[in-house]
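Two entries, shown back to back:
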Amino acid sequence: MRRTAAWRWLPPLLAVLLGLWGLERAGADGRGGMWRDESVTWQVAHRPLGSIWELLGQVDAVHGLYYLLMQAVFQVWDGGGPATGGLWALRLPSVAATALAAAGVAAVAHRLAGERAALCSGVAYAVLPPVQMYAQEGRSYALVAAAVVWATYLMLREHWVAYATVLLLGCWLHEFAVLALLAHGVSAWRSRGWRWSAAVVVVLLLPLAVVSARQAEQQLGWLGRPGWQDWAAYGVVAVAVLLLARGAAVPRELVRVAVPLALLPPGLLMAVSLVHPWYVDRYVLYALAGLALLAGTRLAAARGWWPWLLVAALLVPFGWWSVWLRTPESRKDDVLAVAAAVRERARPGDPVLFMPSRRREWLLSSPELYGTLRDLALARTPAASHSLQGTELPTEEIWTRLVDAPRVVALLDPAGQPLDPYPREAVKRQTLASHFDLCSVDEVRGARIALYAQPGRCP
């Protein structure tokens, strides 16, 4: 019986094992963690199809296909809620996609550089800390990476119909996957098949691009231009990529595929973000496949002990990073920890105030808790308003409701975060400062929970 070559099964198996390790991101209390972007996935994907469609017409169209996929997953099994087995249902698609991407990286390397390079490249992709991070996240980025990697393989095989189909799937999962098309063009632009495929992808992506462009300010208005840290990180990756690509150890055809894939998507998005701030590194996660191809192929071709000494040295920081990624502290916040803290501090029927209003997402994934509280500023629920966080009352009504409340549980961003300048947020802050005493403030994983009471009525 013929044995299956290790490069075919070891990288995806390793990706699965790393993905399942610490999948719930449990803290010291044993409770799993979920950050706010994942909370949005959970909430939206539990809405009826018609409600999701109405939402996508207003916001988050860029994630529409992913929400529909997760809605189908949750129809089969949702684990009973994020506080029970729901985190597995939420994240397993990303684990599977990362395994698929690792297999794809190995397949690309095998075609261009042989079996040893395939094994090393696939493993390199699976162990990269950012890849591990998004393998355990209930968002679309691991799925997009898998689509781009396999589209790269199909490009090399010149299977143009399949190439266009798979890349279009990646673009509809997140439209910034279209930047991979430009990276592919560096090595494939002479091919008539590639040019036709590129045209098909662009034309069929246009409807999503038009809708999401109208939503861009609402969707990405929170982003700033790339900071020095972003440029420094890109510079480090660029230097590493160019050094790995030097010399005869790496086949030139692999260099022509891997270098543009590693550098063009993030570089172009950062350049565009100088005018339109759209850059977040996870939007181009798939670019790490290019780095893995170069690192794995270079390692496979190396002779002597020094490359393995370098790998051993990297295991220490990579190991620490990998462990940290499986803690709730590795994300910006933890909606389940916030909900647990509110549950301990609030009484049934207590007024609750979200400052800013988008932090309503901290409790929306815990409807059994949220339903016991009185949301002072809420006009229409997220489902009724076809929005992510609902709509709020006019400033006058917020003031009226607030001054009549004997006590208020306020959910706030961490200290030092910029304050939203909008009138509704300003009236919340001013009214609490002028009409209430601050009784207590507790910090909980990316949030503050403050208890306010009318003067002289703090417990």
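entry 2 starts here
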Amino acid sequence: MKFILSIILTLLPVMLLAQSKEVKIYYDDEREHLKERYFVKDLDPSVLYGSYESYYISGELKSKGQYINDETYGQWKYYYESGKLKMQGQLKNNSNHGLWSYYFENGELRMKGEI
């Protein structure tokens, strides 16, 4: 029984990863400046599912988070083009949820509050 359970637990992440496909969107035709990187479901490529990242044209990370069945979910972070953290908090069903923190570009906390 333990053997079967260990096999299931080992194969489950592999099966889940196999159900999504990575998509990359670029600012330019030469594919040098990445704009977005995200995952979609294999069975329905219009549904975002998994990690999501967007980038400034400079190549710096702009935002980072997760989608589940085409809806934002979990911890999201947004950055200034300088690379410093701009804001972070929880998103659920495409809306801000819970505690959010906002920062000045120098890294100092600007404000914090529950939404």
